[in-house]
Amino acid sequence: MDWMINIAGLLLILLIIWWFWLSKPKAVTQQSEQLDVMVDNGVYTPAHIQVEQGKPLTLRFIRKDASPCAEKVIFDSLNISADLPIDQPVDIQIPTQNTGNFDFTCQMQMYRGKLTVTKSA
After folding, report:
1. What pLDDT score does 17 carry?
2. 10 part of a folded domain
3. Is residue 3 part of a domain?
4. How many domains does the chain have?
5. Domain that includes residue 79, residue range
6. What is the Cα–Cα distance from 37 to 33, expressed in whole angstroms?
7. Which secondary structure element, helix H or strand E, spans residue 11, and what is its range?
8. Does position 84 have pLDDT exceeding 90, yes or no?
């Protein structure tokens, strides 16, 4: 019986490692100047956003999750953060002058997303 508990614990640990560190969401390419990002069930949707350098980008965050972790979004390397009230869209203007990957997270870094700015074609 103890071995079943150990296996269940190991599987849970592997699931947590995959969920928080190994899973890679498919990138969504910007189609217009504004993109909606849903904050629900512990994730940002989309969680990976790709945009060309220099194109204007507004991310509209729409929080559905009542979890305290979802109260704020932080783009640490861009020095941008915003409070996210439930069911109230919050628009954030994102600078796209510099190429690179820019992570965005909640304040506890449980919700994770990535913005990729690529060279314009």
Report:
1. 74
2. no
3. no
4. 1
5. 27-118
6. 13
7. helix 2-17
8. yes
Q: Is residue 6 part of a domain?
A: no
Residues contacting 85, CB < 8 A, separation 6+? 63
Distances (CA, A) of 81 to 14, 74, 95, 117: 31, 4, 13, 18
What integer pLDDT is reported at residue 58 of this predicted model?
Answer: 96
For the domain that residue 107 is a member of, what is the CATH number? 2.60.40.420
Contact 46, 29 (CB under 8 A): no
Closest alpha carbon to 103 in 72, 73, 71, 61: 73
Q: How many Cβ atoms are within 10 Å of 91's Cβ, its own excluded?
A: 10
- Kind of pairing between the strands at 72-75 and 34-40: unpaired
Is 78 part of a structural domain of the chain?
A: yes
pTM assigned to the model: 0.77
DSSP letter for 86, please.
Answer: B
In degrees, rounded to 5, the angle at the alpha carbon of residue 48 between the alpha carbons of residues 26 and 99 is 120
Structure tokens at 120: 């314009």
What gap in Å lies between CA 91 and CA 37, rounded to an integer? 10
Q: Look up tokens 């704020």; give the residue.
A: 72
DSSP secondary structure letter of residue 79:
T
